[in-house]
């Protein structure tokens, strides 16, 4: 039994010490920020479990949670289409439609072209209801904040959460982003920014912001890490356990 524990510990140590964690040696916030700089070509891609509304002007029978109707699309009323495990939604008249990995403009154009079989000039709108960014830690109102834009700045989200608390550790603000099966964890030192409002730290739907406390134990100030095979939720739980 003791021998098995020793072997298990050795394997675990070897896994943690290899290239699983890609920690930068340079303590430069500007380098970390490059991963979150403005990308004019970025578009949110539809994901599994997304909640989507479909609006076709003047065609209530083809719409689900239509923004054109008297009652706007609202999660409370369950007026949305859920992207299933296979990456599909069920659209009235069109049936099973693959949507995962598509941008909203791409999906709108695809639906519009298919509806031209019945409609002369269909006006179509598609909306993802659950585009959100979570702000956690030393802010006045930690919350999961719904965003309509694909490009959102760090300070914009912090302001929506009521701003930083007195004990916020601005030297170690962490951002988590899902990248395929991995989660990128980037540390940003806001005290080193000469012109923070114009540095353009850009966040996308699905990102997490973690603002630790000054009273917490020291965490690697140089961190820019890839956590393999994790979700942003589990990665956030890991980080909170370390802070």
From TrEMBL:
It is a multi-pass membrane protein. The chain crosses the membrane at residues 223-242. It is found in: Cell outer membrane. Residues 1-20 form the signal peptide. GO terms for biological process: monoatomic ion transport. The keyword Ligase does not apply. Keywords: Cell outer membrane, Ion transport, Lipoprotein, Membrane, Palmitate, Polysaccharide transport, Porin, Signal, Sugar transport, Transmembrane, Transmembrane beta strand, Transmembrane helix, Transport. InterPro entries: Poly_export (IPR049712), Poly_export_N (IPR003715), SLBB_dom (IPR054765). GO terms for cellular component: cell outer membrane; pore complex. Its main location: membrane. The keyword Transcription does not apply. GO terms for molecular function: polysaccharide transmembrane transporter activity; porin activity. Residues 40-128 form the Polysaccharide export protein N-terminal domain. Residues 131-211 form the SLBB domain. Belongs to the BexD/CtrA/VexA family. This is Polysaccharide export outer membrane protein. It comes from Chryseobacterium takakiae.
């Amino acid at each position: 039994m003791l021998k098995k524990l020793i072997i298990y510990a050795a394997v675990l140590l070897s896994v943690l010490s290899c290239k699983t964690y890609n920690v930068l040696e340079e303590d430069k916030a500007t380098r970390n920020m490059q991963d979150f700089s403005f990308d004019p070509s970025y578009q949110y891609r539809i994901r599994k479990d997304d909640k989507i509304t479909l609006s076709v002007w003047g065609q209530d029978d083809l719409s689900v949670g239509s923004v054109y109707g008297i009652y706007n699309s609202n999660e409370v009323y369950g007026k949305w289409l859920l992207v299933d495990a296979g990456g599909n939604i069920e659209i009235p008249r069109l049936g099973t439609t693959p949507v995962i990995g598509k941008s909203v403009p791409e999906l709108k154009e695809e639906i519009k072209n298919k509806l031209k079989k019945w409609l002369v000039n269909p006006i179509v709108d598609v909306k993802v209801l659950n585009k959100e960014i979570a702000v956690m830690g030393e802010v006045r109102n930690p919350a999961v904040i719904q965003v309509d834009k694909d490009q959102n700045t760090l300070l914009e989200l912090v302001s929506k959460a009521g701003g930083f608390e007195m004990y916020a550790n601005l030297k170690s603000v962490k951002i988590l982003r899902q990248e395929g099966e991995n989660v990128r964890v980037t540390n940003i030192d806001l005290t080193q920014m000469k012109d923070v409002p114009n540095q353009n730290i850009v966040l996308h739907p699905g990102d997490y912001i973690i603002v630790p406390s000054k009273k917490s134990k020291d965490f690697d100030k140089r961190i820019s890490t890839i956590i393999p095979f994790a979700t942003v939720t589990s990665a956030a739980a890991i980080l909170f356990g370390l802070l």
